[in-house]
């Protein structure tokens, strides 16, 4: 069986690249118009203020929709407009679930990025102190604090880059699950059972055993 992840990646970076660029262009166009509206609003233009508010909301919608539309382009090989139509249908039927999915996953991913920053901060601070303590205790503390701050920023942003990839994977799984959960049952039945049980628990459907571990996936 061909790897669907590789096939989606190949399509997104070749035939589907135009659709993805087109969607990104629309978002960039809205942001540009919003910048002009903001400039007019800062000069006291009432119409510019109204346009800025509308365009800010439109930008949020475009950015939110485009992420799921790009997933549709990569997985199903459709055009951007067809992907946008599919995304609209998906969010009108599963919109609340999508928002919850994003909120919960973003909290976890943000916590992971912060944890990565804290770990590198501690390592940087410790190394800074150990390397420079020979020049004096105060010097060691100063360099330890400086390297801890640098390590915090580096660790946070580097970890955040990895979290973006995980966030994209979460959105792809959500789209696949919402569109065709039976496909997951055929390819990964154990994963399907875990997700189905969690789904039933969320909607208070009885007869679900408590899941405490993912060991069955090994």
UniProtKB/TrEMBL annotation:
<keyword id="KW-0472">Membrane</keyword>
<dbReference type="Pfam" id="PF04515">
    <property type="entry name" value="Choline_transpo"/>
</dbReference>
<dbReference type="InterPro" id="IPR007603">
    <property type="entry name" value="Choline_transptr-like"/>
</dbReference>
<comment type="function">
    <text>Choline transporter.</text>
</comment>
<comment type="similarity">
    <text>Belongs to the CTL (choline transporter-like) family.</text>
</comment>
<keyword id="KW-1133">Transmembrane helix</keyword>
<protein>
    <recommendedName>
        <fullName>Choline transporter-like protein</fullName>
    </recommendedName>
</protein>
<feature type="transmembrane region" description="Helical">
    <location>
        <begin position="138"/>
        <end position="158"/>
    </location>
</feature>
<feature type="transmembrane region" description="Helical">
    <location>
        <begin position="104"/>
        <end position="132"/>
    </location>
</feature>
<keyword id="KW-0812">Transmembrane</keyword>
<dbReference type="GO" id="GO:0005886">
    <property type="term" value="C:plasma membrane"/>
</dbReference>
<dbReference type="GO" id="GO:0022857">
    <property type="term" value="F:transmembrane transporter activity"/>
</dbReference>
<feature type="transmembrane region" description="Helical">
    <location>
        <begin position="64"/>
        <end position="83"/>
    </location>
</feature>
């Amino acid at each position: 069986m061909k790897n669907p992840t590789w096939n989606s990646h190949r399509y997104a970076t070749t035939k589907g690249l135009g659709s993805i660029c087109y969607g990104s262009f629309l978002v960039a166009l809205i942001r540009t118009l919003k910048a002009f509206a903001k400039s007019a609003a800062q000069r006291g233009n009432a119409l510019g203020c109204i346009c800025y508010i509308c365009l800010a909301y439109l930008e949020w919608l475009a950015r939110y929709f485009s992420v799921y539309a790009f997933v549709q382009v990569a997985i199903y090989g459709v055009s951007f407009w067809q992907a946008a139509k599919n995304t609209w249908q998906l969010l009108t039927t599963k919109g609340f679930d999508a928002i919850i999915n994003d909120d919960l996953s973003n909290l976890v991913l943000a916590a992971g990025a912060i944890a990565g920053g804290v770990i590198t901060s501690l390592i940087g601070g410790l190394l800074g102190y150990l390397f420079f303590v020979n020049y004096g205790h105060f010097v060691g503390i100063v360099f330890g604090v400086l390297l801890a701050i640098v390590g915090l920023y580096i660790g946070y942003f580097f970890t955040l880059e990895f979290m973006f990839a995980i966030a994209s994977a979460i959105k792809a799984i959500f789209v696949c699950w919402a569109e065709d959960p039976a496909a997951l049952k055929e390819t990964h039945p154990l994963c399907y059972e875990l997700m189905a049980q969690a789904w039933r628990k969320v909607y208070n459907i009885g007869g679900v055993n408590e899941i405490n571990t993912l060991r069955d996936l090994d």
